[in-house]
Amino acid sequence: MFGVFVRTVLRPSVKPCHLVRPITQRSERSISHQDSLPKQPVPPLKQTCERYLASLEPIVSEEELGHTRKLIDEFLKGGVGERIQKGLERRARKTENWLSEWWMQSAYLDCRMPVAVYTSPGVVLPRMHFQDRQGQMRFAAKLIAGVLDFKKLIDTNLLPTEYLSNMPLCMDQYYQILSSCRIPGPKRDTVVNYAKGNMPPTHITVVHNFQFFVLDVYNSDGTPLTVDQIYMQLEKIWNSSLQTNKEPIGVLTSQHRNTWGKAYNNLIKDKTNKDSVRAIQKSIFTVCLDAPMPRVSDEHYLSRVAAQMLHGGGPRNSGNRWFDKTLQFIVGEDGTCGLVYEHAPAEGPPIIHLIDYVVKFMQRTDFVRSPMVPLVMPQKLRFNISSEVKRDIENAKQNMTIMVHTLDVKAMLFSHFGKNVPKRHHLSPDGFMQMALQLAYFRMYNICCSTYESASLRMFKYGRTEGVRVTTVNSLRFVQAMAEPAKQKSEKQALLRNAVQTHKENTYNAIHGQGIDRHLLGMKMQSIEDLTSMPELFMDTSYAVAQHYNLYTSQVGSKTDCVMCFGPMVPDGYGVCYNPMDEHINIAITAFNSCEDTNAAKFSCALEEALLDMRALLEDAA
């Protein structure tokens, strides 16, 4: 989903309506870099089948595993697997990336669950010290200026290429996150990027008290507005939107996609509404000026802000969003701030890189003082609310209330240590964290579960993500050993090291295009495209267990002391995102209250205990 952390160094046959295409206005250097990237490979068929069987061992019964072995044997020897594999290899030769269109469709555009909570991640930024509207406006003005400064790097092709393991990465996702928006459809959504073409957008949208405004952020000579100018414009918006009795039109975008698709068609029947919606969709990004959250204790503050980023928190702010917009920055009057982003165009690392850049920009003190020249009043977007649209809004409000009460969020700052401890013991910090998650889950449920960790495929042209299968035979041996008091600490430590090493190897395979999950998806999609019967392998109980991710996880590293959060993948699972800093770890855990077996707070306690026990194990054995 989000991919691994990357460093920056200064030096698909795709249907346009289904996948955002790269914009063409790039320098020769940028184009040559993109063109020199290798194509994503199709892994060898036998290798994927063997690795798939190995990934099933710790999570299915002996009987189920035996049945799957027979199915794989038939798949390999009966010619079905070979025929599908050849079809995939043909597709790989003919397209720029054999997977990207299928991934966009299956992971995002075909998904009919709401984007809020279910696919859109939130990011919680450190709490700011302002407690009034002036502080809110000043912060928002600097933030907007910072994003525009980052946009200049994109527009002038000066964005530094990123590298992972000394390999250049595909930078295409950076060209998709600004001026783009998801558009609902009755059965499948589309993503449109308005940065292409002769007239790229020059405005952002600002929403306050459920009212949307177009704010032009460039002067007539093409220069961006200064912080002072943006501040003055935000003041005008604030003063023009003091009424709070407006209909929360934005809450419509939080609905189930089929429901929103119908409501969208109702909404844009009216020309005024259609023009207003288009202005939001075409904007470079959106800024949400939120009302203060209900007061909570310091202990619960971080968790409440994480929920606020994911869904708005309910009646006060959930209508202050347009969830289809790729980037929405959220600035509360009480100092809460962060963002929520629609996931279809990009993974987490480009978003986090943008955040790091903007946070650094905002720390500058050399902002240009602008002459007080009069600026045009930002345009308020009008909506005509028919009885039908009003009914749709009421339904959306009710469903949002249910969503708010259903999501269980625990954001925590693990302060005992950070990536310094595993590094000191020559262990991968990410592998160490993943084994702690395995141990916490095993202690709570006395079983291992299917666990997904996102890895980046950006070494390849238009690469997105691959899944790392975290639960392995070696991780199972480690967590079982931790439950046996008679086992020597040295033996437990050796098992921990083996588990982390296996995870490291699986991660390496994933980022080099040799993972199993995208290959399995490709074979399934190829079968559908060939109009042949679905291989039994994909109807198997083991396949269903393997795809049911009770732990859906991602490391999203940032220089900023922030944390990303996202909802669970399955009704009885957990969503876990973490940002390991040198001396502490920021962690966000989500679950659904509708499931009696999951509890985000209990899982966070189990995780904290697991991390401390693993540190003790390393230090005692040392």
Keywords:
about 625 residues; alpha+beta; Chloramphenicol Acetyltransferase; 2 domains; eight-stranded mixed beta sheet
Structure description:
The protein is α+β, with helices and mostly antiparallel strands and 622 residues long. The chain has two domains: 299 residues, Choline/Carnitine o-acyltransferase, domain 2 (Chloramphenicol Acetyltransferase, 2-Layer Sandwich); 207 residues, Chloramphenicol Acetyltransferase, CATH 3.30.559. The protein has 19 helices and 19 strands. Strands 12-8-7-9-10-11-2-17 form an eight-stranded mixed sheet, sandwiched between helices. It has a six-stranded mixed sheet with strand order 13-19-18-16-14-15. The longest helix has 23 residues.
- Low-pLDDT windows of residues: 1-29
Write the CATH homologous superfamily of the largest domain.
Choline/Carnitine o-acyltransferase, domain 2
Give the C-alpha Rg: 24 Å
Number of domains: 2
Please tell me the CATH architecture of the largest domain by its name: 2-Layer Sandwich
Oligomer: single chain
Principal-axis shape equals globular
The helix count comes to 19
